[in-house]
Amino acid sequence: MLIQKRGSARLKWMPKVASTRFDLGDAVVFNVSGQITPVVAASTTIMGYIKRNVLSTDSDFASTALVPVQICVAYDEVEIDASTTVTAAMIGTVRDFSNASTLNVGAAATTGLVRILRQGSTTTKAVCSFLKNGLTD
Fold first, then answer.
1. Half-sphere exposure (CA, 13 Å, Cβ side) for 65?
2. pTM over 0.85
3. Contact, 96 vs 111, CB < 8 A?
4. What count of Cα atoms within 13 Å lies in the side-chain half-sphere of residue 62?
5. N or C: at which end does the chain have fewer Cβ atoms within 10 angstroms?
6. Can you tell me the distance from the alpha carbon of 122 to that of 59, in angstroms, rounded to the nearest whole number?
7. Longest alpha-carbon distance in the chain
8. Whether 98 contacts 41, CB under 8 Å
9. How many helices (H) and strands (E) in the chain?
10. Do the beta carbons of residue 48 and residue 76 sit within 8 Å?
11. CA–CA separation, 102 and 82 (whole Å)
12. Which of 51, 73, 70, 69 is nearest to 133 (CA)?
């Protein structure tokens, strides 16, 4: 789950990809159709995170309904769950995501989506800034 720690609120309503589950705080990116989809390990950009759950039981699950997305830019600070303990040696390094809710801190980045600024509220969370937000890159 992504939680904004510092930065301006830039909430936008964007169309979601149909028939896909989202959890509150999942990192998202645009697909080729201009709809948001959850970030995966191979994602090359990230634009922000979704501000609500989208479940298979929701009436709009199979549609491309508009959903609230917090847009994040380079100077924002976002706390992200990490794949393992965040150590002092990781501060300042560039990392990618394992999935839409987890930062892969166990491996060096291939794309470099975020930079770790400091340890988060627990040892398995990192406060990061976005490097490739998909809107200005």
1. 17
2. yes
3. yes
4. 2
5. C
6. 36
7. 46
8. yes
9. 0, 11
10. no
11. 5
12. 73
pLDDT at 85: 96
The token pair that represents 87 in the structure block:
């150590």
Residues 6+ apart with CB under 8 A from 89: none
User: Which residue from 95, 70, 93, 72 is spatially nearest to 83, judged by alpha carbons?
Assistant: 95
Ordered per-residue pLDDT tens for the chain, 137 residues? 899 999 888 999 999 999 999 999 999 999 999 999 999 999 998 999 999 999 999 999 999 999 999 998 888 999 999 999 999 999 999 999 999 999 999 888 888 999 999 999 999 999 999 887 766 54
